[in-house]
Design brief:
about 90 residues, about 60% helix, mainly alpha, about 0% strand
């Protein structure tokens, strides 16, 4: 009888875990849906803005697919001087 009660307790614990995971997944799904909707709205605003610029003849920048311009070489900084004031001068 104790074995059956042990298994029932394990099943209840598993059920509680699965219910809480289901609730967590629902929250995450709602959060993702909200994020996707906000991203879509942002893209629409950008698209509408750029379309408006093109309709008014606003000059568009060249494609950025060109190779980047020259780069600056890294700077080699000099090492700091070590002042050994604790050395004996005898």
């Amino acid at each position: 009888m104790a074995e059956i009660e042990k298994r029932i307790a394990e099943l209840q614990e598993t059920r509680n875990f699965l219910e809480s995971e289901g609730e967590r997944i629902q929250r995450e799904t709602a959060r993702y849906l909200n994020l996707a909707q906000m991203a879509s709205a942002s893209v629409k605003i950008i698209f509408d803005t750029v379309s408006g610029w093109r309709e008014t003849g606003h000059p568009m920048p060249e494609s950025r697919s060109r190779a980047p311009g020259p780069t600056t070489a890294p700077v080699a900084w000099p090492a700091p001087a070590i002042n050994d004031s604790n050395a004996d001068s005898s």
